[in-house]
Amino acid sequence: GWIYGLGASEKVIGEALKDGYREKVFLVTKLPMFLVRKTEDFYKYLNQQLKSLQTDYLDAYFFHGLSRNSFKKVKELKLIEKMEEAIENGLIKHIGFSFHDTLPVFKEIIDYYDWDLAQIQYNYMDTAIQATHEGLKYAHEKGIEVVVMEPVKGGKLANPTEEALEIMKKASNQRTPVDWALQYVWNQPEVAVVLSGMGSKKMVDENVESASNSGINSLSEEDNKIISELADIYRKSILVQCTACKYCMPCPYGVNIPENFAVLNNVAYSGQ
């Protein structure tokens, strides 16, 4: 995506995929909808992204962070038609979008076009906000491959309270906090891909191990009960449902919105 890694992520990935690695991966990036002002901007950004990624095609191209307002822009500027044109020109293979809004808006977008993929925020805490669990099932029923982001809720589910840890300790299947979060998402038959943010080799190793032990409908009745209890504990302690995605930034008044929400939630979460 255009904004990740302070704008450098595509260049970093382009370097990493040289020397034969490009053909071994499914490469996706996103059209920065917050920068698009006119129809011609579609190729302006796509061509720059292809250059940064050092490739001549994308396996999928997403509209970044669709909401009611940005989807209106997609329609007004006829950007889906540009996506289809890019497919005809061999620049992209599949069309999708990432999403940050409410269930009614999600359904409206899903019903508007024959999408290949949809990316939503989903974890055992966030089953009733944004696209919701209902939206996950709705997209799947339409034949859309659903990609999940924020499976550990921006790292919050990796750092449980003492109360949550006590719940985990009583489980027959002992798991790390991260594994509980990831297994919940992989357990859902409607989920095609899980995107997990990792910042160290240790995190990569833990995620690989978790993935190796995952499977659809693999959680026991006891596991699901534990996860339900964990979700209740976390929800009680979170005042603002923010994952620090930073789509609200920059603030016109200079306020670091995610940071302020994080401080508020951390105080509520820790009681300090």
UniProtKB/TrEMBL annotation:
SUPFAM superfamilies: NAD(P)-linked oxidoreductase (SSF51430). Coiled coil: none annotated. CDD domains: AKR_Fe-S_oxidoreductase (cd19096). Residues 2-230 form the NADP-dependent oxidoreductase domain. This is NADP-dependent oxidoreductase domain-containing protein.
